[in-house]
Design goal:
With 457 residues, the chain is α+β, with helices and mostly antiparallel strands. It has two domains: 2-216, PmbA/TldD fold (2-Layer Sandwich), CATH 3.30.2290.10; 221-285 and 348-454, no CATH class. 22% of the residues lie in helices and 40% in strands. It has helices at 2-16, 74-89, 118-138, 200-216, 234-240, 243-246, 250-254, 315-320, 357-361, 414-419; strands at residues 22-38, 41-59, 63-70, 143-159, 164-179, 186-193, 221-222, 226-232, 275-278, 299-304, 307-308, 329-335, 338-343, 348-350, 367-370, 373-380, 385-390, 394-398, 401-406, 408-413, 421-424, 429-433, 436-442, 445-454. Strands 7, 8, 15, 16, 17, 18, 19, 20, 21 and 24 form a ten-stranded mixed beta sheet that branches. Strands 3-2-1-4-5-6 form a six-stranded antiparallel beta sheet. A hairpin with a 3-residue loop joins strand 2 and strand 3 (63-70). Helix 1 runs parallel beside helix 2 and helix 3 (118-138) runs parallel beside helix 4. The longest helix has 21 residues, at 118-138. The radius of gyration is 23 Å and the shape is globular. The mean pLDDT is 96.
Length: 457
């Protein structure tokens, strides 16, 4: 398979380099399997096979273009190159292009990135899904719904400026929601990773966790708006607090969409917090030996001991900021049907803490434990005001009692919340789902004095 992918990438680059100033071609073969279930039964099992060509071209000095198309052979490759070159020629010069990687490199091998037994796992996956559903029901849920996605991909890339390489990976993610007859009484279980055959126990635990939370949510009362300490589990922390290091991005800063704009070198988080962008992290869904340009992957400390230390860079923004690429070049969505070669995160990794969840919740202050959230929206990108709605099980811990509540909204400022973290859990978990598109390794955390409003306001 690798030889075929390399051959197609070679055809694209050899054909395109006479028409461009530079061209990068990535050929990706992906097989995806999805199992969806509702009402505690599997509804559908689907398989996708795709061979895709991804292109980045530079023409007339500063014009850049991107294309992603399915292909079946040499003619499709040449047609795709002609199409993206023709389109790029009519574009204005790019204000975010100052060059791409020009050096060849040897790349680090990533461990636990490819599960050799994934095909046998896929065959027994329906049985595992049914077992996860059974776990939810045994813990007290009336029904369960969700999906398991599994992928196997092979990639080869080549740049006309020299870099080339290939790698393969497997991934999986399971999202299960457990429900009672009353929709408000629900719980969520998530698990994701790169080695599904080593994660069967975790999948069953995800089902059990969803069922347990659903049962504990029964009788949830309307929450009272006010100021509370919050304990966010990894799912919620990844969406809310994990969104801050993602914004350590010169593109977002230049576009006025990041609250980190002029805060380099400031203490923005507690001293016991360090956060990295790490493309080599073991088991990371987005781990890769090289970035989109062929720059070697590396670990970049965005926050170190609470201090904002670094941004993510590709070659272009590195030159703009008079520094080096951090190996963070990605093909980034900038709108419907539009992509650009920009810096972006791979895996966001928070350090683990030293408190159990029980210790985080053992407090004399009124505290709300949030286990899931949806519909996160920014009110002001530059200052960090936002809101998000907790879903599924949520609890008020007050005077030693744990009571289920509902219909609340977190309405606060992400930078203020980041600074007010006073304890980290020891349960660091990788989180990835539709509310957390950037894989994030993060523990539970307790945050002081957060503003909660009614969800209907």
């Amino acid at each position: 398979m690798t030889d075929n992918l390399k051959n197609l990438a070679d055809i694209a680059v050899d054909y395109g380099k006479t028409k461009t100033d530079a061209i990068i071609a990535r050929v990706v073969q992906t097989k995806s399997e999805q199992i969806r279930f509702s009402q505690s039964k599997i509804d559908i099992s689907k398989t996708w096979n795709q061979l895709q060509l991804e292109l980045f071209v530079v023409v007339a000095g500063q014009k850049t273009g991107v294309s992603e198309v399915p292909i079946s052979g040499e003619d499709d490759v040449k047609h795709a190159v002609d199409g993206v070159v023709k389109f790029t020629q009519i574009l204005p010069d790019s204000m975010f292009y100052a060059g791409i990687e020009e050096n060849t490199h040897k790349y680090t091998k990533i461990s636990d990135n490819y599960d050799e037994k994934i095909d046998s796992f896929i065959e027994k996956a329906p049985e595992i899904v049914n077992s996860a559903i059974d776990q939810a029901l045994q813990e007290g849920a009336k029904r369960a719904a969700g999906a398991l996605m599994m992928t196997k991909s092979h990639l080869f890339f080549r740049s006309s400026l020299g870099p080339e390489g290939g790698f393969r990976k497997t991934t999986f993610d399971l999202n299960i929601r457990a429900l009672q007859n009353e929709l408000d009484y629900s719980g969520q279980g998530l698990i994701c990773g790169t080695m599904p055959t080593k994660s069967e126990k975790g999948m069953l635990e995800a089902g059990a966790r969803a069922g347990r939370l659903s049962k504990e949510a029964i009788g949830a009362a309307q929450g009272i708006p006010g100021t509370y300490d919050l304990v966010l589990n990894p799912t919620v922390g990844a969406n809310v607090i994990g969104g801050v290091p993602v914004l350590a991005n010169p593109f977002y800063i230049m576009m006025g969409m990041s609250p980190l704009g002029d805060r380099m070198g400031e203490q923005i988080a507690p001293v016991n917090m360090t956060v990295t962008e790490d493309s080599l992290f073991k088991g990371g869904l987005n781990s890769t030996p090289f970035d989109w340009e062929g720059t070697p992957s590396r670990e970049t400390k965005i926050i170190e001991d609470g201090v904002y230390k670094s941004m993510m860079h590709n070659t272009s923004t590195g030159k703009m900021y008079e520094t080096q690429s951090t190996g963070s070049s990605r093909l980034v969505d900038i709108g419907v049907g539009s992509k650009m070669l920009l810096p972006d995160s791979s895996n966001i990794v928070f350090n683990n803490g030293d408190h159990s969840v029980e210790e985080l919740l053992d407090t004399k202050r009124p505290t709300i434990y949030v286990t899931c959230n949806w519909y996160t929206r920014a009110q002001n990108y530059q200052t960090g005001e936002f809101s998000t709605i907790p879903r599924d099980a949520m609890f008020l811990i007050e005077k030693g009692e744990k009571k289920p509540i509902k219909n609340m909204r977190i309405s606060d400022n992400i930078m203020r919340m980041l600074a007010n973290i006073d304890a980290l859990g020891n349960d660091r978990t990788q989180v990835f789902w539709w509310e957390v598109p950037n894989p994030t390794f993060i523990p539970s955390m307790r945050i002081r004095d957060c503003r909660m409003t009614a969800a209907t306001q």
